[in-house]
Amino acid sequence: MAEKKILIGDVDQRLLFGIQNVNLAIIESEFPVKITARGDWVYISGESGQIEAVEKVMKDIMNHLRASGELSERYIHYSIAMIKENGAGPNEQILDVEPLVVSLATHQAIRPKTLGQKEYVQAIDHNDLVLSIGPAGTGKTYLAVAKAVMAFKQKLVNRIILTRPAVEAGESLGYLPGDIRAKVDPYLRPLYDALHDMIDAEKIKKLIDLGLIEIAPLAFMRGRTLNNSFVILDEAQNTSHSQMKMFLTRLGIGSKAVVTGDITQVDLEDKSNSGLIRVRKILAGIKGVAFVELTRKDVVRHRLVQDIILAYERYESRKK
After folding, report:
1. What is the rounded distance in angstroms from the CA atom of residue 29 to the CA atom of residue 263?
2. Helical H runs in 162-252?
3. Which end of the chain has fewer CB atoms at under 10 Å, N or C?
4. 3-state class (DSSP) for residue 258
5. Burial level of 103, CB count in 10 A (0-12/13-18/19+)?
6. Residue 44, by phi and psi: left (phi above 0), alpha (psi -120 to 50) or beta?
7. Secondary structure tally for the chain: helices H, strands E
């Protein structure tokens, strides 16, 4: 048995340890060690190899807490998994990524939180068309909107255009009450929500009135050429083959496009007609086009979301 102590110093101990030291209990459940907090020190006792791994976890989650101002159970589990897998914590590997924009809700800089998200953000930097495929909660839409806002503020583009296909679980726009705006707003709400976390509501209204931000159903893109724009197509698994072709051929001079979707949640009657599923084969190998596959490891929602995704993957595998 050996023991090592770590100085915790300038981090908020309440956030680091969690309520009733729940965060330390999570680490103890993953490693055969005993962790004790006394004042500004954390004492780790156990086998030397296990102590070294726990020290890496503690330093990684402290660095994450300093950088983001928050620490979730999900991040602790992710840090443990990454250190067990390759000996380095995720925060150490994503610190070199430039913060995107500041969240109005948390007042913290929005940045990638996983290695998959880092790859995604870097792909957007280096390609004019990025297609991000992954399960719910991996930050596909949110990070794309953050990159769009960043590009707009830096005057790299003149407009932000956010669009989605108006297809949800077999429902039809015609059966919804109200005018066309009232009909399509429910489909576009996730895009509004992400945008409102990064730009003041009054400013968004002005930018929309000026045509500098546009949030519209995919059908409104037909026949247009989108120049000097950052264009995001969300929920692209619900585009048909022809709709995906139509969207991709709208891209004009000085524009960048990000396409996001989850191929396990296709709401089309003929799921094989999903434009997102087919486009992977059609555009493979084209220069300037990048495909980024996010997985349940990149989920940044509640910890249970990872377990739910895994459970569904097992269920679908058994069905096949």
Report:
1. 34
2. 180-196, 201-209, 241-248
3. C
4. strand
5. middle
6. beta
7. 12, 9
- Tell whether the torsion through CA atoms of 27, 28, 30 and 31 is positive or negative: positive
Cα R_g (the chain), whole angstroms: 22
Q: What is the mean pLDDT of each run of 10 residues along the chain (320 residues)?
A: 88 91 93 92 92 93 84 87 82 72 78 88 96 92 94 95 73 50 67 90 92 90 94 94 95 96 89 92 94 86 70 76
pLDDT digits (tens, 9 = 90+) for 41-61: 999 999 988 999 999 999 999
**Two structure tokens written together for 29:** 């459940």
What are the tokens at 62? 């402290």
Neighbours of 264 (CB within 10 A): 14
In contact, 150 and 248? CB cutoff 8 Å? no
> Measured between alpha carbons, how far is 54 from 71 in angstroms, rounded to an integer?
16
Residues 30/80, Cβ–Cβ less than 8 Å: yes
* Residue 167: CA count within 13 A, CB half-sphere: 21
The residues with which 3 forms a beta bridge, in sequence order, are: 45
